[in-house]
Amino acid sequence: MKFLITIVLISVFGYGKMSELAAGWSFVGNPLGRARPCNGNNIIEAVFEAGLGPEEENQYQLFIYEKFPKHSRIKIYFDSEATVTLNDDTVARITPFSWKDLYVVINFFKPASGFVVVIKGPKTGTVPYPTSINVNSVEYCKDPKPGFLDNIVRGYKGTAHVSLSVPTGSCGRRKVVHTELIVNGQPTKPGDWPWHGAIYRLEQSSVKYVCGGTLLSKSFVLTAAHCTTINGKPVLPEILSIIFGKYNLIGGDIATQEREIYQNIVHAEYDPKKLDNDIALLKIKTEVTFDDYVQPACLWDLNDYKKIPVGTVMGTVVGWGFNHNDQLASTLHQVVLPKILDGPCIKSNTAFFGKLLTDKKFCAGYRNGTSACNGDSGGAYQVFVPDVSGDSTANATGAWHVHGIVSLAISRPNEPICDNTQYSLFTDVGRFVPWIKTYIKTDN
Prior knowledge:
Elements (H helix, E strand, L loop, with lengths): L4 E5 L5 H8 L9 E4 L8 E6 L9 E6 L8 E6 L3 E5 L5 E7 L3 E7 L6 E6 L9 E6 L2 E2 L56 E8 L2 E10 L4 E4 L5 E2 L2 E2 L5 E5 L12 E10 L13 E5 L13 E2 L14 E6 L13 E8 L1 H7 L1 H7 L4 E4 L15 E7 L11 E12 L14 E5 L4 H8 L4
Parallel strand pairs: 1-6, 20-25
Antiparallel strand pairs: 2-3, 3-4, 4-9, 5-8, 5-10, 6-9, 7-8, 10-11, 12-13, 12-17, 13-14, 14-19, 15-16, 17-18, 18-19, 21-22, 21-24, 22-23, 23-26, 24-25, 25-26
Helix pairs in contact: 2-3
């Protein structure tokens, strides 16, 4: 997941002076707030000012009340785009890293009695929160507490703000804009889902479409483990391939990029019988080129729940899965499905969901004939996360985040075809983000 990170170095005053001022700070008309961004760690503190303007309120100061000897190193990871300002550049240098993980590294070339940075989000109003703070190879933030500033960020109120910009190269954003929406179960349009790919497998002497996959970077694709295995064992990467920018299942596309697979990474705890840990990564041999029809999607983050509109989580599944005629769709289709709570899901079919629904899966769909089906496996259950928290307007800007992977559904009696009057199960991607990042963090 690629985010923009901006580094500004300024020398305002040393930490010692800041500590003296902190106890007596006062802001006319605006209260000063303090929070602990890491549960269980009292030497890390966030200090912020309430009541600032829309483009300034999503910022705070991060203090680490610790002595740092020469050659100390601090690594801070964030959950979204950030501008980081080092208060004292006479003792340390700061370097940005922003490919799949968004973080900064601070290297001390002199000893310091403490550490302060100013952290600010983009003009879209989002607040970057630390997800990890590593000091000299020791994790100081084992239990991060994101969202501590959300309740004071008010954004633009009573005004039509039209200057929100889409960061170049960011994930989960379409480059081809259409004027109308597509209703559930109907064909999409080329460029609507530029991160969705078609996975093919060589079987005997022919190449067969098997599953969908989601592009996460120039080199990695996320899919279901059952799409890349046979009898629970990973297939050779040489017999797999994937095509991005594809709209028509058979030919006639505007701009496609076909890639061979270099590595088939199946989760070590994948259970083919229950489809537990049904997740895999495909590393492609040659990087894709990002263009109007090929873009990466964003990975789900637990903080996304706070940004989406209040109510039922709605996700979109796209693919060439079976249509009402029980045949693979000729063009890419989409369907919007609500996420279902575990209780109602299990009650709908206790014999099936009672055995297979775990804390690493979730249930979604309708029971009216609208569902994910054969051929949609491996594709994403993707949720639109607005730039401005809670924005549910028709022209809201934002990005699509992969919340789940199409995994399994109840089949019809005596038929190997999904029963579209039942809910479907999805691999919960949020539970596997650390596993995903162990591979993608090296994708530069």
